[in-house]
Write a structure and sequence with these properties.
- The protein folds into 2 domains: 9-164 and 333-347, Rossmann fold, CATH 3.40.50.2000; 174-329, Glycogen Phosphorylase B (Rossmann fold), CATH 3.40.50.2000.
- The chain has 13 helices and 13 strands.
- Strand 11, helix 9 and strand 12 (277-279) form a beta-alpha-beta unit.
- With 352 residues, it is of the alpha/beta class.
- The mean pLDDT is 94.
- It starts with 8 loop residues before the first strand and ends in a 5-residue tail after the last helix.
Length: 352
């Protein structure tokens, strides 16, 4: 029988958190920030030194040694001391724990698209994911698509809790847009793609279409696993989160080219910031944004060229698309995400 204290201690495996951003770091940072006023509990986050300053007030940092890859997995497997509940914010859970265990699954890409990862990572990460999902008392999935894949691959039911645009993801003012244009030396008109450069992203199709239309493609992020960006693009590297709303506002269009996603946060953020979005209709993205984005099939350069020309040449059509996107994501909020996450804890018997 697990002992639950009057004010429970919840420990989060937040080791992936760092200042460079990315979907998982955004999820960790925004969920913890929103949980502080929602959960009547002592919240503790295990972080590396690189993630300590990213934690919101109200969350106690448990700083471990800097680590990555296998070492980070080992650090998480060892556990983080006494806890009524441990929540692995990117699947990983301690091998042993006296408390309850919850795992968040962002995607099942390591099972579904193994070609997108280095071979040496596939087997190890599959073992880790299966162990976490087997040992978890509850599983959270960030989309219904991901929940379906968890059920089909591992036989576990998952509670669907969508992510959301951050509270700062709102349309930027002209002053901030002008500042960002100067900072990153942006062209007057351009298509923006936010996300790292990796095999899952269909950047060649997006870059080829932009080249044919005659509009620059601007990429944020960094390369993973020796992936290379198409030669015709403009790379501006990792962009601090506070600059993203103005960057979305400066873009003529936001393109999101992916062959597989567990959720797809950049198009959601772009829509919340008032941008018109063109995206591949992968199931997890389509589930959330629906008619809020114009779509193109991976590899369909001809179709994308037609779509880009239509939108770039018609301000009214582009503004109407941006308004549909804004409405599509209006109901998403991190407060709702946090409350639904707290409900998962309560379903296990934790009193908050």
């Amino acid at each position: 029988m697990r002992r639950v204290t009057p004010r429970p201690r919840i420990v989060y495996n937040a080791l992936p958190l760092d200042a460079r951003g990315g979907g998982v770091s955004t999820y960790i940072r925004e969920l913890l920030r929103a949980l502080v006023p929602v959960a009547d509990a002592d919240l503790v986050a295990a972080v590396r030194p690189a993630g300590r300053d990213e934690l919101p007030a109200g969350v106690e940092p448990l700083v471990l040694a800097e680590s990555s890859g296998v070492r980070r997995v080992v650090a998480g497997a060892r556990g983080f001391g006494p806890a009524d509940l441990v929540h692995g914010l990117d699947v990983d859970l301690p091998l042993r724990s006296d408390g309850l265990r919850v795992a968040t699954v962002h995607d099942m890409a390591i099972f579904d698209v193994p070609w997108a990862f280095p071979r040496h990572r596939v087997l190890g990460e599959r073992v880790i994911a299966r162990a976490a999902l087997r040992n978890a008392d509850a599983v959270v999935a960030v989309s219904a698509f991901t929940a379906d894949r968890v059920r089909e691959v591992c036989g576990r039911e998952a509670v669907v809790v969508h992510e959301a645009p951050g509270p700062d993801m709102v349309p930027a003012g002209e002053h901030d847009i002008a500042r960002v244009r100067r900072t990153y030396d942006l062209p007057d008109r351009f298509v923006l793609h936010v996300g790292n450069i990796e095999p899952r992203k269909d950047l060649p199709t997006l870059a080829d279409a932009c080249r044919q239309v005659g509009v620059p493609l601007v990429l944020t992020g960094h390369s993973l696993w020796a992936s290379r960006a198409p030669e015709s693009v403009v790379q501006i590297g990792d962009v601090p989160t506070p600059d993203l709303p103005a960057l979305y506002g400066a873009a003529t269009l936001v393109g999101y080219a992916s062959r597989y996603e567990g959720f797809g946060l950049p198009p959601v953020e772009a829509m919340a910031c008032g941008a018109a979005v063109v995206s591949t209709p992968v199931p997890a993205v389509d589930e959330v944004v629906g008619e809020g984005a114009a779509t193109f099939a991976p590899g369909d350069v001809v179709g994308l060229v037609d779509t880009l020309r239509s939108l770039l040449g018609d301000d009214d059509r582009r503004h109407a698309l941006a308004e549909r996107g804004r409405r599509a994501v209006a109901s998403l909020s991190w407060d709702r995400t946090a409350r639904q996450t707290a409900d998962v804890y309560r379903s296990l018997g934790l009193t908050l």
